[in-house]
Specification:
Strand order of the largest sheet: 1-2
Number of strands: 2
Number of domains: 2
Radius of gyration: 18 Å
Shape: globular
Largest sheet: 2 strands, antiparallel
Distance between the termini: 34 Å
Strand content: under 5%
Order of helices and strands: HHHHHHHEHE
Oligomer: single chain
Length: 151
């Protein structure tokens, strides 16, 4: 059962929405196979499937680090600490900018994350989508540089 579970939530090679769709197909097979034997455990997985698969929307290089709550909780704690100093934010745009800045700064210290150019572009595109900014034209030349967080 454990091997089948990890095949659903962790061993998906696709990116973005395609990864979530593939994981949902695998989850249906998982549920059909294991529900007769472990009904309450499978019900727990089925009820929380959206939360279990959200990490698949992010670049594949980040998935193993962000699927656990420790990294996320630490980052949320840092965001709360910064908001407490400010008191109140004047707009949604300010809130989003602050959260993005905290995540951007925190990501530089994440160990074990390699950021190839494709992943960096994906994160920049996500930020533009959140802020409602237009996507810039595709660059003529892409530099094959990989950025690795400090160990």
């Amino acid at each position: 059962m454990k091997r089948d579970y990890w095949a659903v939530v962790d061993q998906v090679q696709a990116e973005g929405e395609a990864a979530v769709a593939e994981a949902r197909r695998r989850a249906k097979r998982f549920i059909a196979k294991w529900k007769p034997r472990y009904p309450s455990a499978v019900a727990c997985v089925a009820d929380n499937l959206d939360a279990l698969l959200v990490h698949l929307l992010f670049p594949a290089e980040h998935r193993k680090r962000i699927r656990h709550s420790n990294l996320i909780e630490r980052t949320f704690g840092e965001t709360r600490r910064r908001v407490k100093v400010i008191g109140r934010l004047p707009s949604d745009q300010c809130s989003l900018s602050l959260v993005w800045a905290v995540l951007d700064r925190a990501s530089k210290g994440w160990r074990g994350l390699t950021m190839p150019p494709k992943a960096l572009r994906r994160l920049q595109d996500l930020r533009r989508e959140l802020l409602g900014q237009p996507r810039p034209p595709a660059p003529q030349e892409v530099i094959a540089q990989t950025v690795t967080a400090a160990a």
